[in-house]
Amino acid sequence: SQTIHQWPATLVQPVGSPLSLECTVEGTSNPNLYWYRQAAGRGLQLLFYSVGIGQISSEVPQNLSASRPQDRQFILSSKKLLLSDSGFYLCAWSEDNQETQYFGPGTRLLVL
Amino acid sequence: AQSVTQPDIHITVSEGASLELRCNYSYGATPYLFWYVQSPGQGLQLLLKYFSGDTLVQGIKGFEAEFKRSQSSFNLRKPSVHWSDAAEYFCAVGRMDSNYQLIWGAGTKLIIKP
Description:
Chain A is mainly beta. In chain A, 0% of the residues lie in helices and 57% in strands.
């Protein structure tokens, strides 16, 4: 069966520091991968999605970036965090050419 | 443009009572429809989905949803809620024009009264 992992689970970072959040999927190949942000009390905002290694599409311009160095690995990064980057970050995957998305446990990021 | 509306931000229901969470969408064709649940501090879990066929869909945890094309709705129901159902519920529509993304509703927070 497929599983999706995210780490770290919680992160507290100072403003201006770098960020790296990691997401990995097991038990499938060539998945579509997604990064979402969920601000407190808000819905889901799609940040990035990827249909293959090195293929990243950005939905919202911001100081975040994403990379997919391996088929089942998706990384969310920032060179300098802003206070507004605080939130709950969710990674999700779907089978290639399928709509159903499956979510990881999320990473809670607090920027101080 | 496609959109999903969940008109209720919060709903409070007594334990054991029935539940209906509303979801309306705008989409020109027959959509792919989803309901997800998110417990506090957790990721989202798929409850059920509708792609085609029988318009009444059964999901996990005793939930069901009915697709009504005439009303552009996909309401989620449960005959008797349990305290463990307290969570946030998200409706989503498949965005068919771009790599199978989902358009998300803003969510409905379900509060259970003892």
